[in-house]
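Sequence in, structure out. Go.
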Amino acid sequence: MLPPPLPPQPPAEPEKLAEPMPTPPPEPSAPPLPPEVLAHQKLMAARPRIEAELAKVIVGQADVIEQILVALFAGGHCLITGAPGLAKTLLVKSIARVFDLGFQRIQFTPDLMPADITGTEILQSDGATRRMEFIPGPIFTHLLLADEINRTPPKTQAALLEAMQEHQVTAAGRRHALPRPFFVLATQNPIEMEGTYPLPEAQLDRFLFNVVVDYLPEPDEVRVIQRTTGAPPEPIEALFNGEDVLAFHALVRQVPVSEDLVRHAVRLAAATRPRREGTPDFINEAVTWGAGTRAPQCLVLGAKARALLHGRSHVTREDLHALALPVLRHRVLLNYRAEADGLRIDDLVRRLLQSVEAS
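Output:
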């Protein structure tokens, strides 16, 4: 006998899918950092990296390197004074590689003409028409090394004046803007005067610093000989570019400086001017012409860049005094008596700093 049929079962309910977890709202993205903050962060980490790259080819000269870096970050030009064979040209070329800047070198000679630097207009023809076309000279670069600038006549030296001050070249009445950033690093030999043309004071004043390269101490000179007579050094790595340098320029000008320090810089420059109220007697006896207003401008601007290089966001009196020599040594003229007595301008500036500190 068959079992009775089972009662009909209700249809199985479809399985309920688990409700998806609600997605959390997206976290608000951090706002992009302002350009000056990014430039500040990059500059804070810059000095040890720059020194490490330059150390691949340059031995010693820490003060010289710092002063040139300060000038570049402040956007100024440098006159580099030193005897032959002290690696002035190598230092400038190495700095150009670190900053990945366009680089040109001009060897100044007595027969160099202004057009050899700035460029010239040449008649061009395409068969149907003829026209004058400007051919840029080597000055159209980011970093120009003017090697032995005092070996060329004043007419050619003056070709740099407009470029250094206005960042432009005028040829045949037309203005040609130079690339930015633009720096002139000029070298001169202080011990050889025959066949040279000393730079006029108006052009010397265009240089932010006059950096003196001196002989190395014996241990450093031994290292130089070992390096230069051995295997080639490692190539220098580019750390920055032109846009970074322009950002550094803008950042340097935002560094605060107190009015007291600005007044101190002005008084320091004014103390170099003879026959003025408050000028020390030793200045009146030794100086023909003192520093102008551009000196405290360069002193304060350079002090801002130095403060950033040392990891500070404010200027101190130490920054001003550390840059007094490169700022003043080419802006103060000694008289004949002081030169006959063998007085050096660096000794005079150091004595001036001591007298200002004591007052």
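Check: Residues 270 and 291 are 7 Å apart (CA to CA). The first helix runs from residue 35 to 44.
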